Amino acid sequence: MERHVLIHSVRYGYWYNCLQEVFHRRIAFWTNLIQLVAGCSAVAAVAGKYPTAMAIAGAISAACALISLLLNPSSKEWHFKQMKCKFLELRESENSLSDDELNKTIVRFQREGETGLTLLANPALNMARREMGYIDPKDFARVTWMEKAAAKFAY
Fold first, then answer.
1. Which of 14, 24, 42, 51 has the CB geometry, 3.0–4.6 Å to 76, for a possible disulfide?
2. What is the pTM for the complete model shown?
3. 8-17 pLDDT per residue, tens
4. DSSP-assigned states of every residue in 87-134
């Protein structure tokens, strides 16, 4: 494999894990905050005898709890942070590694990694290419509006 492709893989691994880490951190924060506010609203609704407000607050809190249970954002944030740090360490030593050693390390990191939100793959690819000095628009992946929104939330 050509050296610039390996270097690109290292840069991509860093940016992908960085975006995933921030995305999951923000999901954890917002779901916890909304659950807190909804719980307080439910208590106030019970005290004020507002059954509709209590039902709405309970539904919102349950929806956020479901998102937290399905995504498990806190543990994923930690995992993506660890992987980001591994790719940063690899960046420090990439010049001293042979192509074969660098490729083996990248493959090992990919095997250890976790699949994240696929909407962040193209933005991470473009960030890696931008970092490597690409300027021609044809060298960048097309990013949909959903990918742009996810990247904006994650960065």
1. 24
2. 0.86
3. 999 999 999 9
4. HHHHHHHGGGS-HHHHHHHHHHHHHHS----GGGHHHHHHHHHHHTT-
